[in-house]
Amino acid sequence: HNVRRTIFDLDTFRLWERRSLALDHIGDGLFVLFARDYAPLAERLDAITGRLEAIPAYVAATRSRATAPQVRVWQRLEIEAADHLPTFIDEIVSAGKAALADGTAAAYVCEFGRCQAPTADPDELRRQLLAGREK
Fold it and tell me: What is the mean pLDDT of the chain?
């Protein structure tokens, strides 16, 4: 039954055409890397950095999938998810800063192939991330 339901969802229902799940997926992916203690925090932060760097390409790819009229309620849910991401990223940065007290960790905020100056300062990272949302 589950296999048939999955096939129906993918081939017939095609939710991805009517609902953007990009920010939910981004937040879920970051949460798993951050919360699960499968490796030292420094290694998990490297993995998180890779996910953050891949966000612009992922969001662009999901935009091309939205070929059907979008459902306003689902759009509101996505916006609510987006509102929580900066706070969650602040928590990741704070944990990373505490774990890597020598200050060598740096974050890069990139959008459309252009990156801002790397920063190890959580306040500056938050400013850069929020500036990208205002565009």
Answer: 82
Q: What is the pLDDT of residues 71-110, one digit of tens each?
A: 889 888 888 878 888 888 888 888 887 776 665 556 667 6
Pinpoint the alpha helices (H) of the chain: 2-8, 22-35, 41-65, 72-99, 122-133
- E strands of the chain, at which residues? 110-111, 114-115
Quick one: 107 exposed, middle or buried, by C-beta within 10 A (0-12, 13-18, 19+)?
A: buried
Share of the chain above pLDDT 90, in %: 13
Number of other residues whose CB lies within 10 A of the CB of residue 91? 11
Backbone angles phi, psi at 37, to 5 degrees: -95, 55
| pTM exceeding the 0.70 threshold for the entire prediction | no
- Whole-number Å distance between alpha carbons of 37 and 124: 27
21 Cα distance to chain centroid:
11
- Label residue 38 exposed, middle or buried (CB < 10 Å: 0-12, 13-18, 19+): exposed
